[in-house]
Amino acid sequence: MKADLDRLMQSRDLNALIVAGDESPNPFRYYLSNGARISDGLVFKLRGADPVLIVNGMETDEAAKSGLQVLSYHDLNYSALIKAAKGVRALAEVGMWDELLRRFDVPQGKIGVYGTGDLGVFTAFLPELAARCQGYQFVGELDLSIFDEAFLTKDADELARIQSVAERTSEVLRETWDFIASHRAQGDLVVDADGAPLTIGAVKRFLRRALFERELEEHGTIFAQGRDAGMPHSRGEESDVLRLGQAIEFDLFPRESGGGYYHDCTRTWCIGYAPDSVQRAYDEVMTAFRIAQDSFEVGMPGKAIQEP
Q1: What is the mean pLDDT of residues 65-86?
Q2: 306 domain-assigned
Q3: Is residue 163 part of a domain?
Q4: Percentage of residues in the chain with pLDDT exceeding 90?
Q5: Can you state the percent helix, strand and coil of the chain, rounding each to 5?
Q6: Cβ–Cβ contacts within 10 Å for residue 199, how many?
Q7: Is residue 96's pLDDT more than 80?
Q8: Does residue 205 contact residue 195 with C-beta atoms inside 8 Å?
Q9: 120 domain residue, yes or no
Q10: What is the pLDDT of residues 203-238, one digit of tens each?
Q11: The domain that contains 183 carries what CATH number?
């Protein structure tokens, strides 16, 4: 959890950390910024101090809703820096990082660098940064990162949000079941009241609406039938018509709208009836699941459940 960050920084000998990125989703920035609705920007954290947001001047009000200290790019002399860099934004940002380290009197040493973005840009960016900011080592991590460790534990607010996402996801799962059940069989096909076949695409459109109504975002839902259901991570063919007695793999893993926590649940369904081969596979998996459930103890590593 966030309360562990200073301890985790100390264990890595980090004097500060910076989370960077472009306008693409950035879970690390979202986490440190308390979910601020900003499109880009930096998060700076000095060890022993609260994070600081550095954002475009148009987004300072939104950033302020995070409850954190907010600086605009212009507070770090961005206008002069972009002029000196002849319009090259990445070089201006190098200067802005330098201004940031000076402004907060960051001791020389290791600075952790995290975030998301274009690898090509950062490959060129970091040497420029090291050349300008003498005495600092800008470092990343190849193994379990500081954020991976922080994510392992949750505070009460995080747990409440996770539970809420789980409850809303379960509602959508049930509504999808009921939506399919509102149709009828015609031969081995599933059709609506007018006899029009029900397709996987129609099911996915239904669940996207149901997710939207609960402020959840769909992220590549798997709804695959028949052979596709047996192929790992096959998303299913939108044009396929639902059929009786076919195994359906339904893997639903939405996220809070705008960023945040996911909930992931997987179900295997058959409409009308389950063929003997599918029923046997289901029974075997359920037996293994119940053995694992009965064997689990608090504090036991999850991998131990899968070991012979």
Answers
A1: 94
A2: no
A3: yes
A4: 88
A5: 45, 20, 35
A6: 17
A7: yes
A8: no
A9: yes
A10: 999 999 999 999 999 989 999 999 999 999 999 999
A11: 3.90.230.10
Pair 46, 167 in one domain: no
CB 226, CB 249: distance < 8 Å: no
Does 200 lie in the same domain as 105? Answer: no
Q: How far apart are CA 21 and CA 17, in angstroms?
A: 13
Cβ neighbours, 10 Å, residue 254: 26
pLDDT at 308 over 80: no
* Mean pLDDT estimate for the chain: 94
One domain for residues 143 and 166: no
Q: Are residues 216 and 82 in the same domain?
A: no
Of 151, 170, 191, the position where a domain reaches its end is: 151
Q: What is the structure's pLDDT at 296?
A: 87
3-state SS, residue 222? strand
Q: Is the dihedral of CA 73, 74, 80, 82 positive or negative?
A: positive
Look at residues 124, 151, 178 and tell me which one is the last residue of a structural domain: 151
Q: Between vectors from CA 27 to CA 21 and to CA 32, what angle results, nearest 5°?
A: 90
Q: What is the pLDDT of residues 106-151, one digit of tens each?
A: 999 999 999 998 999 889 999 999 999 999 999 999 999 999 999 9
Each residue of 222-243: b (16+ CB within 10 Å) or e? bbbbbebbeeeeebbeeebbbb
Q: Write down the pTM of the prediction.
A: 0.86
